[in-house]
Specification:
Length: 390
């Protein structure tokens, strides 16, 4: 019997090298467009070409730069700028932070008040099913934000939080995935973003909320990640096959956005959220460091408990990472998978490199969760996992 499920995604997905050039043709609203980018993109040839494209279509652009994770104040300021200029739609071109800022700004263009009032666990108002038209163009292969219905909004420090503005209506109507945009992305950023996408695929693959459709996407995403991760596993940056590997990572990251949005995540993300709220540790680094310690504990518990199906899924992930998509999984692939996490984590900084110390650990553990993990790790197990990567 097929279980009951629901699946949400973009109304329109465009995937392919050079497809960022189609953005101006896809803008349907009248009036100026709010275009959000990161710091780097405005200095690229792709941006110059895009500016020409907007000009040729007679579209006035109001461009703003998004630096770092969006805060409530940043989103409110973007919305104020957009309203002042009469913009009716939003295009976001960048990493997860730029896309989240764009999704939030598009939503708030159709809502009264501050975004603060609508954030989960912070404000007291419910967002409504209305948003300005939004085109999301990721330039990194990581969060999969282009496929999801939430925008993560952060405030750092003692009263810090990392909360979502969330509604089914906030999934960007159009996602354009152009793998060429990630060429030149530095190795450390590529690895950290890849770790995030990989964790999202793996956690949603074993999630208690997994569906028949997320299973298909997660399996294919893990295979594609296996192919694409050769880029950093074998240091193939700048070589001939780079754009091919980037395209595998880009599609894997997109799938990870769909699977996390429809199946949910697990303990790695349940810890990475509070880490991001209380420290400067990038999300992908937190995921890449924790995936080994967390999954080793999960795998140990599955041996004792009745978790054979989950173990089979972990073995599948290990098999496709080590031997390719046609590999027949065997139980030893679970250990190989966890060993591979250690190799990746060795390429990342540690939590203490971002100033984190034991004093923050208790606060982070108290704010952490297991989300949809099939194995519930206790607070002390989560604490031990964190201390391992300090
Ligand atoms: Fe993530």
């Amino acid at each position: 019997m097929v279980k009951t499920f629901r699946h949400l995604g973009n109304a329109d997905l465009i995937f392919g090298n050079g497809k960022v050039s189609t953005v101006p043709d896809l803008v349907t609203s009248d009036g100026p467009v709010l275009v959000l980018t990161g710091n780097h993109f405005p200095h690229t040839q792709a941006w110059k070409n895009l500016e020409d494209g907007f000009r040729n279509c007679g579209i006035h652009v109001v461009r703003e730069t998004v630096s770092g994770e969006p805060s409530p104040e940043m989103v409110d300021a973007l919305v104020e700028t957009a309203r002042k200029n009469g913009t009716a739609s939003v295009v976001a071109i960048g990493g997860g932070s730029v896309l989240d800022a764009g999704k939030a700004a598009a939503a708030m263009l159709r809502h009264e008040g501050s975004i603060f009032d609508y954030l989960e666990g912070v404000g007291s108002w419910e967002p409504e099913a209305k948003t300005a038209p939004m085109i999301a163009v990721p330039t990194t292969a990581g969060t999969g934000s282009e496929a999801t219905k939430n925008a993560v909004i952060s405030r750092r420090g003692a009263d810090g939080f990392k909360k979502s503005l969330r509604h089914d209506a906030f999934i960007p109507g159009i996602a354009i995935i152009d793998p060429e945009l990630a060429v030149g992305c530095p190795p450390n950023v590529t690895i950290a973003c890849g770790m995030d996408a990989f964790c999202q695929l793996l956690e949603s693959f074993i999630s208690t909320g997994a569906t028949p459709l997320t299973d298909i996407l997660a399996r294919d995403g893990l295979c594609r990640f296996g192919k694409g991760s050769k880029l950093f596993a074998e240091n193939r940056f700048g070589l001939d096959g780079e754009v091919g590997e980037r395209s595998e990572l880009a599609l894997a990251a997109y799938y990870s956005g769909l699977t996390l949005a429809n199946a949910g995540l697990g303990t790695v993300h349940g810890l990475a959220g509070p880490i991001g709220a209380y420290s400067e540790v990038p999300h992908g680094v937190a995921c890449g460091l924790l995936v080994g310690p967390v999954f080793r504990r999960i795998a140990d518990r599955l041996v004792d408990e009745d978790g054979l199906e989950v173990l089979d899924r972990l073995a599948y992930a290990g098999a496709v990472l080590h031997r390719g998509a046609d590999a027949v999984p065997e139980r030893g692939d679970v250990d190989r998978l966890i060993d591979r996490f250690g190799e990746w984590a060795d390429q990342l900084p540690r939590l203490s490199d971002y100033g984190m110390s034991e004093t923050e650990i208790d606060t982070i553990v108290a704010a952490s969760a297991n989300k949809n993990s099939p194995v519930v790790l206790s607070e002390s197990e989560r604490r031990d996992a964190l201390v391992e990567v300090l």
